[in-house]
Amino acid sequence: MKLARTKYWPLSAVLGAVLSAGALAQAQTNVVTNGSFESGLTGWTFAKDPASPTGTCGFNVAAPAPGTETTTGTPGFPATDGVNIALGGATQTAAGQFSCVLYQDVAIPAGATTANFSLDTAIKYIDGKNSGNAAVFWSLYSAASVPAYTSARVRTFAPAAYEPASSDVALQHFPATNVNVSGIAGTTVRLAVIIASNFTTGAAVIGVDNVQLLVNVSAPATASVPALGVWGMFGLGGLLLLCGLWWLRRQGGVSAAA
Fold first, then answer.
1. How many separate helices (H) and strands (E) can be counted in the chain?
2. Using one digit for the tens of pLDDT, what is the confidence trace for 35-91?
3. Helices 2-25 and 228-257 sit at what angle, rounded to 10 degrees?
4. Pairwise CA distance, residues 213 & 111, whole Å
5. Residue 90 near residue 55 (C-beta atoms within 8 A)
6. pLDDT (tens digit, 9 = 90+) per residue, 149-195?
7. In angstroms, rounded to a whole number, what is the distance separating the alpha carbons of residues 214 and 178?
8. Rounded distance between C-alpha atoms, residue 166 and residue 134, angstroms
9. For a designed S-S bond to 96, which of 53, 64, 177, 182 qualifies (C-beta 3.0 to 4.6 A apart)?
């Protein structure tokens, strides 16, 4: 039994190392901090777009959900990840395009290729308002200023907006996959979720939970280094050769002793 363990444990170790190297070569990193708001608004900032007309903008975390949105006093939504949820309210008192923004600056790692984004969100229309008056938008923007829903986007997700026909009672899940982020690799960008409204007077409330930006990062490429599969074959072949030589040498020793 000792011989079997001595003979085969190096093979398991090498195969494990090869598989680990393969996983690292396609590493995936969630660059969003506190995306389920279990630590309140830690890592997040909210603000009203400076160009928006008169009104009130606010975000709070219901701990636990559903809680109440504090700007309007509106009941929230059940959480979808953990027990907390972020609630946002936008109340207009003058006509125009209004933006209330919840954002976080995220670092896109060097070597990033693609990303998968997702969030859960919902809208409640207040005071008899309905679709056509308010929506929720999400995208990546420049970190230089507070974004509005009319701001230029660094990267656009698909879908990138939600406007239900009537008020929601639960959060809806929105995924956006295979977003090309290679052009912004190694930079910091602003991930923003925006309540956008266009009332004369009126209000809307949104819920946000389970925000993720999973970035795929490739291993650094070096022209003189063989591909991972070639290294694996070399390692396995060399190991088998050494095992064979060891076995032949032991067999010769056993025969001589006999």
1. 2, 13
2. 999 999 999 999 999 989 899 999 999 999 999 999 999 999 999 999 999 999 999
3. 170
4. 15
5. yes
6. 889 999 999 999 999 999 999 999 999 999 999 999 999 999 999 99
7. 10
8. 11
9. 53
How many residues are present in the chain? 258
**Domain regions of the chain by residue span:** 2-25+222-257, 31-218
pLDDT value of residue 201: 84
Can you tell me which residue has the tokens 């309905």? Answer: 130
Would you give the end-to-end CA distance of the chain in angstroms? 21
Specify the pTM: 0.76
Contacts of 126 (CB under 8 A, 6+ apart): 72, 74, 91, 202, 203, 204, 205
The CATH classification of domain 31-218, taken from the options 3.40.50.300, 2.60.120.260, 3.40.190.10, 1.10.3720.10: 2.60.120.260
Distance CA 226, CA 128 (A): 65
Which residue, among 15, 207, 159, 181, has the nearest Cα to 114 in the 3D structure?
Answer: 181
pLDDT band at residue 254 under the 50/70/90 scheme:
very low
